[in-house]
Design a protein that fits this description.
The protein is mainly α. It has 20 helices and no strands. The radius of gyration is 23 Å and the shape is globular. The chain starts with a helix and ends with a helix.
Length: 444
Amino acid sequence: MNALALASLVVGLLVFRQPLLVILLAAISFAHLVWGQGRLDYVIEDMWVSLDKEIILSIPMFLLCGGVMTRGSAARRLVRIAEAMTRHIPGGMAAACVLACAVFAAISGSSIVTMLAVGSVLYPAMRKAGYPNKAALGVVMAGGSLGVVLPPSIPLIIYGLVTETSIVDLFVAGLLPGLLMVILFVAYVVWTNRRLPTTKFEMRELNAALKSGIFALLMPILLLGGIYTGYFSATELAAIALVYAVIVEILIHKEMKLADMRHVVIDVAKLTGALFPLLAVALSLSLLLTEHRVPELMVHFVQGWFTGPIGFMVAVNILLLVVSCLMTTTEALLILGPLLAPVAVAYGYPKVFFGIRDDPQSRDRLHGPPARPEPAGGDDGVQTEYERLDASGGPIRGPHGDRSCYHRRIPAAHHASREALMSPVSATRIRRESAHRLADCSTA
């Protein structure tokens, strides 16, 4: 009966078109009242516990890094290098778009930031060169989606958070699939545009482009080197990338002033202000599900339907194709990640493998209808054109187609919560350990 009431609550909120944050918050509050200990303050405590992780700091820093490179001239310089390399092959401008998106995605970690940065430069250029509207938009969207799997991918960070998987392992595992996607995308646009006229390759132009954009080109090398050597954590890497981007754009390229950082910070604050509450509620829900052993029940339920790993993976593919038409990538990862990852492990798929396989498919919402990017601000013209692409996303197409005690209380609770989140301990233990420390603080 309680389950039916919860389902009715969720359906009612969906009917009234409430955002996912409101639906999740209502569902978790209902669950705490009915199946928990009846205390709604535990919802706030769990959200605090969930966000008390150092790795979360890397998300705004990578977004800031992408924002700095976008407001500066890095995107334009990367595009110039890619165009100089591909101008002599058919469909060279579309191939340049894919390559530039791949490099910029390896800087920002965000598909939408990549689309807006590269698309604002190359989309008008492709239209001017004779590419149809749908073809130009398809190339930008497909190239931008490389940011979902290429490190330092923010969706991979979110997947690692909700499934307690090593972020560095996910970054390392995502590089080769990302490069394979780049090769396939470039091969496709070259083949479909093989009859288009080309221009002569000029070594002088390539040298000039490399000289102009060498510092922007070194950024992904710096990031990948830090990831693969294991010398930096993901958070440290984000901080280094941000400092490097600020130095390059303000002191070397001199295309950006220090006062412009205000606009970058405001844009990123809008993004994180929408993401972090959703992340907190979803992670809080994950703690509640773990406390009540829902993932284990999910494993037994799914194994009753699918006896082999292949059948399970086919079902997941179908589910994600449907979900990608209804939710953003982040929403799909936050909701389905904690539920599907334990089931995948039960079928013999490691969490890292499942994350790399699952993450690219969740980006299909950027390709197939309804192809509408997640709100990220940016170039209004490009954003408007994206919204017209609903029925024409699909594959890439060529042109033809108290205070003292306060400071003691919070770290004490944080210490217990951090250990709990790093191991499969229920939220009950978190509250018990935190309560003991807070009681000690109160009597001190």
